[in-house]
Amino acid sequence: MNIILSNSNGIPIFEQIENAIKEAIFSNELKEEDMLPSVRSLANDLKISFLTVKRAYDELEQVGFIKTIQGKGSFVAPKNVELIKEEKLREIQDYIEKIYNISKMANISGEEVKELFRMIFEEDF
């Protein structure tokens, strides 16, 4: 798993770590029961505070993406299909809100946007 951090994108470092691990889970780069690097090991690799990595792991565990076993480490939790679907729906919603704002600024009607979606989805099938 390769995590690339950026100080210039405005996203907190712990959140960038969370997002990278979620994407690795979504793409099956990380599979159920795979062991994650220890907090200290990942912090050393990324040259950041272990508290930042700990916060990312805590957040991931709280929402069910990983599980931590005292004395053994952190592991990818069994996939919860609904959790993954909800995460992706939230991401799609963010993009749709951006599309809405762009269309509003450019005076593009909802019907024109819907037609674009229809065309895109028809190409898919």
List keywords for this structure.
Arc Repressor Mutant, subunit A, 2 domains, 5 helices, 125 residues, mainly alpha, 6% strand, single chain, 2 strands, two-stranded antiparallel ribbon
Plain-language structure description:
By secondary structure, the protein is mainly α. It folds into 2 domains: 64 residues, Arc Repressor Mutant, subunit A (Orthogonal Bundle), CATH 1.10.10.10; 44 residues. It is 60% helix and 6% strand. The protein contains 5 helices and 2 strands; from the N terminus they run αααββαα. Strands 1-2 form a two-stranded antiparallel ribbon. Strand 1 and strand 2 form a beta hairpin. Helix 1 crosses helix 3 and helix 2 crosses helix 3. It is elongated and about 55 Å long. The two termini are 33 Å apart. The model has no long low-confidence stretch (mean pLDDT 92).
Q: How many whole angstroms does the radius of gyration measure? A: 18 Å
Number of DSSP helical runs: 5
Distance between the termini: 33 Å
* Unreliable parts: none
The CATH architecture classification of the largest domain is: Orthogonal Bundle
Per CATH, what is the topology of the largest domain? Arc Repressor Mutant, subunit A
Biggest pleated-sheet summary: 2 strands, antiparallel
What do the pLDDT scores average to?
92
Q: CATH H-level name of the largest domain... which superfamily?
A: Winged helix-like DNA-binding domain superfamily/Winged helix DNA-binding domain
CATH C-level category of the largest domain: Mainly Alpha
* Biggest sheet strand line-up: 1-2
Helix content: 55-70%
The chain-level structural class is mainly alpha
- How many domains, in number, for the residues? 2
Shape: elongated
Order of helices and strands: HHHEEHH
Share in β-strands: 5-15%
